[in-house]
Amino acid sequence: MHFSLTFFLFFRLRKQFAQVSRQKKWKFAWTSIPILDFNDCKFFNDDTEEESTAWHFVKFVGRVLSLHDAFFITKFILCCELEHKPSCIRSWVSATIMCNVEELDTSIPDSDSVSLPHCLYACGRLKVLKLGGPFVLTVPTLVCLNSLKIVSLCGVQISNCFSLKKLLPGCPLVDELEIRYSWTNAKTLHISSVSLEKLKREKLLMCANSNTTGCGIVIDTKFEVS
Known about the structure:
Layout: E1 4-6, H1 7-12, H2 14-21, H3 24-27, E2 35-39, H4 50-67, E3 75-79, H5 86-98, E4 103-107, E5 114-115, E6 128-132, E7 135-137, E8 150-154, E9 157-158, H6 163-167, E10 176-180, E11 183-184, E12 188-192, E13 198-202, E14 205-206, E15 216-220, E16 224-225
Parallel strand pairs: 1-2, 2-3, 3-4, 4-6, 5-7, 6-8, 7-9, 8-10, 9-11, 10-13, 11-14, 12-15, 13-16
Helix pairs in contact: 4-5
């Protein structure tokens, strides 16, 4: 049986949560929940100041991750409509990777760029990677994502033309790649994979300071393009 922890539920039912947590059998049970789902917009209302809401959300997420004692996190979902410091988001991603996350699904507003931690590219249990927002995809030379099967990039900043070319060979099981509304400073992106079966692409653009508005893709594999 799986459980998910949402900030919305905690915020709305905090009194009930406090009563239950006093029972010894539940006192530390929540620290081992395998599915973590954080959403900062579900509890926001007109009576709550945005700055205060963001501060409490950051505190809560940080505390949950610091106290989480499960060796594995099955799924980590982060959906933000408020702006949070890039360092906070990066630290949350790092914390989930340290817990051998299997599915990482993030969506953040288009504001300051967030650099991804290098440990992400060596997360052997990661099966699904969904990045939504101004994450910077700077791929190191060594990539070891042996379980990764699905990659979705939406609004992501792809640092150079070889980013995907370096990423995909380190993902021997990946069979689906989605790139939408992403930015790059390269004129051409190289995609090379023996396992890739499906590519979804839409509005792959050059950076704003570029002289062109489109980006070409060099494909070295056989798969369905949509």
